[in-house]
Each structure stands twice: as C-alpha cells, then as structure tokens.
Amino acid sequence: MKILFFGDSITDSTRERGSNDAGRVREEYSICPRSYGSGYVFLTAAQLFYEKPNAYEILNRGIGGDRLPQLYARIQLDVWNENPDVLSILVGFNDNNTGENPNFTDVKRWGRIYRMMISDTMERCPQTKIMICEPFAIARKDSIREYAVEAKKIAEEFGLPFVELQEKMERAVETYGLQACLFDGIHPNIVGSKVISDAWLETFKTQVLEK
C-alpha cells in the first residue's frame, strides 16, 4: 500500500528531497528514514513498518512554507504521478491571515481550491483514498479555527476521513507543556509529532483499513 503525505512544513519536517518530487533537491532520494523527515510522518512510517514489514510504501511530499494554492500547483507531479493508495493532506496555517502574512488565502477561496483539489484527485486517481487532517495551532489558534471548520466541512461533503488534531494537541500541551509539544506554538517537537501520528493512525485503521 502506497501512502503519500502532502502538506507544508509540519509534514516536511526537514525531510531530504528527491529528484522525483517538486521540492528543491537536498540529496539524491533513497528509500531511507531521512526521506520521511523527523516529524509525524517518520513516526507513522515506523509504526506501520513495525506492525507489517514490507506492506507499505511511505512518501513524504511536504514542503515548508507552502499554502494550499502551492499544493494544488504541484499536485500533478507530487501526487497524481505517484497514484497513491492513500493520500493524507495537512495544510492551512500558512494560508491564514495573522496580520503578518500579505499572501494569505482567505477561507472562502481556500475552501474552493480545496474542493477542486479533492474532486480533481478523485477523477485522476479514483482508487486513491483521501484523508483530511485538521489544521491546528496553539499560538494564534483563533486565526486557524475557521480553516479547521472548513476542512471538516469539506471532509463531510466528500465523505472522507477527518483526522482531528486541535483538541488532542491542546490536551497534550496541558499535560506536557508547550515546549515539549510545539516549540513555537505551530511546529511540533517529538511529543507533538507523536500526537499527530497517533491521531492519524487511529483514523487510518478505523476509517480506511477497515472499510
């Protein structure tokens, strides 16, 4: 089963790029842990490989700084050409208007682009199962909320699994502290990455594998 993770820096997590993806090449791509990055994709891959060796192929196609329009611009190369069995999308924080982002994507346009990306992917890769992850933040979390609401609405409209993250991350911060979870309130440390991975795996196993 080929699983492709698509998103921004939270997914990227300093992965090594390969010559077959849209990101800048850091080093020639190889199937090795470095290609998964150091975040939730790495932890998810490790758990899946531990449970079923040789059953999965994991691709990380996150690029730091990307907004949703940039994901859509590279979807042909990074997603459709790979024709994955499962596509997981986590995007949104870079799109929101925090007062510091002149290139923000307003939520109505964000929703239109997201729906177009989902419907186009369903047409191009009809066998691909799509998972939508909730965009989240602790710092400036109010500015991301409307994108999270829109993401859940899109998942419901298309009948797609939705990975809830905001509440789980808030609970983790209460338990372990902000610095253990998100070093800047946005990007996960190891505990935050584990929170995302656990939530993703739970949704994957109950809403993708069992259906």
Describe the fold and architecture.
The chain has 211 residues and is an alpha/beta fold. 47% of the residues lie in helices and 11% in strands. It has helices spanning 9-12, 40-51, 68-73, 75-80, 107-124, 141-158, 166-176, 178-181, 190-209; strands spanning 2-7, 57-62, 86-90, 129-133, 162-163. Helix 5 (107-124) links the parallel strand 3 (86-90) and strand 4 (129-133). Helix 2 (40-51) packs across helix 9 (190-209) and helix 5 (107-124) packs parallel to helix 6. The longest helix has 20 residues, at 190-209.
Number of helices: 9
Shape from CA axes?
globular
Q: Give me the oligomer status.
A: single chain
Give the low-confidence spans: 24-30
Helix coverage percent: 40-55%
Major sheet size, sense and barrel closure: 5 strands, parallel
**Distance between the first and last residues' Cα:** 14 Å
Beta content comes to 5-15%
Mean pLDDT, nearest integer? 90
Number of strands: 5
- Give the helix/strand class: alpha/beta
Strand order of the largest sheet: 2-1-3-4-5
* SSE topology string: EHHEHHEHEHEHHH
Using only CA atoms, what is the Rg?
16 Å
Quick gist of this model?
With 211 residues, the protein is of the alpha/beta class. Helix content is 47%, strand content 11%. The chain has helices spanning 9-12, 40-51, 68-73, 75-80, 107-124, 141-158, 166-176, 178-181, 190-209; strands at residues 2-7, 57-62, 86-90, 129-133, 162-163.
